[in-house]
Amino acid sequence: MPSRRRALLCLFLFAVLAAASLTISLAAGSLDVSSWSALSSLWSGDSLTREVVLELRLPRALAGFACGGLLAVAGALMQILLRNPLADPYVLGVSGGAGVGALAAMFFGLPLLAINGLAFAGACGAMLLVFGLAHGESAWTQPRLLLTGVVVAAGCGAVIALLLSIAPQEGLRGMLFWLMGDLGHVIEPLPTLIALLIALALTLPFARDLNLLARGEHTAHALGVSVQRLRWLIYGIASLATAVAVSAAGSIGFVGLIVPHLVRMALGNDQRLLLPAAALAGGTLLVLADTAARTLFAPQQLPVGVLTALLGVPLFLYLLSRQPR
């Protein structure tokens, strides 16, 4: 089978897996619902089942899918931007800024809308701070951007530790759950879904340029790519996608690091296929992890970031073992 047909088949299989993960998420829970009943309740059916599926499980599943897709796309873009396979969406301090904003809102007892708003504002603030400090008086380079992001992330980590140390005892559990990733407080998934569609719509037209940039800046520039403008675009889209995901679901690790690697193993490094496939695979992974997080020890729920880390660490070690020495 030609490589293009194989790639399209893999993309179709990713879409099927995404649909299957959403169906499993709608059916799994304390109320035993079959897959067909869960799907049929979207338009008719028993009132209790319909209420549970439409008001509790469906928003959480869609938000989880969108957040996973945003993190995976952001991770793929960051790995191109920094030309570093270890780069993930959080490497430039966006997650730390969001954590400072969200935990400050929780510390002062603000409502959920304010928590999400301050988390997004903190993420954007960290993004602007990193870019401003890394740019300086001349064009920024990958090492300078990376080092600046590490320093800003460390500073945000110190503020987060301070907030946790002085927070009242009754608020610590919510803060820790947010830091480890939690989809339990998601009410409206539409903003994250729209953000995912916008991120793909903005990046896919530049897929050819991204392919050239992945081969090196000199090669891309020689072939007519406006490298500086493209780097700004990648940084802006990846950071904003991460900010939306983190403000909605907290800091969920390893999705943006592992998923792009797994997709490259299946499809190669053509960004025209890699980016939509990463969105589907990242969404699928996070939906399945969240379903396990709320059902494995029901009625006790686990932070979804714990499960993604437990899955991500052995997968990443396996990927490292496959690399040539």
Walk me through the structure:
This protein has 325 residues and is mainly α. The chain contains 14 helices and no strands. The protein has helices at 3-27, 35-40, 47-82, 94-107, 112-135, 142-166, 169-180, 190-203, 207-214, 217-222, 227-249, 255-267, 271-295, 304-322. Helix 3 packs antiparallel against helix 11 (227-249), helix 4 packs parallel to helix 6 (142-166) and helix 5 packs antiparallel against helix 6. The chain is globular, with a radius of gyration of 20 Å. The mean pLDDT is 87.
Brief characterization of the structure:
77% of the residues lie in helices and 0% in strands. It has helices at 3-27, 35-40, 47-82, 94-107, 112-135, 142-166, 169-180, 190-203, 207-214, 217-222, 227-249, 255-267, 271-295, 304-322.
Features:
325 residues; mainly alpha; 14 helices; 77% helix; 0% strand
- Radius of gyration, in Å, reads 20 Å
The percent of residues in helical segments reads over 70%
User: What is the distance, rounded to the nearest whole angstrom, between the alpha carbons of the first and last residues?
Assistant: 31 Å
From the spread of the alpha carbons, the general shape counts as globular
Total beta strands:
0
Average pLDDT rating: 87
In what range is the share of β-strand residues?
under 5%
Q: What is the element string, with H for helices and E for strands? A: HHHHHHHHHHHHHH
- Point out poorly predicted stretches: none
State the helix count: 14
Main sheet overview: none
Structural class computed from helices and strand pairing: mainly alpha
